[in-house]
Hints:
Layout: H1 9-16, E1 23-28, E2 49-54, H2 69-80
Antiparallel strand pairs: 1-2
Amino acid sequence: xxxxxxxxxxxxxxxxxxxxxEKAILTVTTPxxxxxxxxxxxxxxxxxxxxxxxxxxxxxAQDTWNMSEEEKVGFANSRKE
Length: 81
């Protein structure tokens, strides 16, 4: 889920701009933005990191204005974690 910290900031930002089925090459010149333990890049020591991405599918999140107050609080709390 974009914005909840499941993956590194670089991937989250790139995917936000992609459409279903789109492919992209992402070059990250700030390696700290690509530090991702799940990808084996926890302590990356490089000048740049290059990802090849393909957005196969996505699930649109519920719009916050359609959420109940309880759902909004739960959503906000999950983003803080």
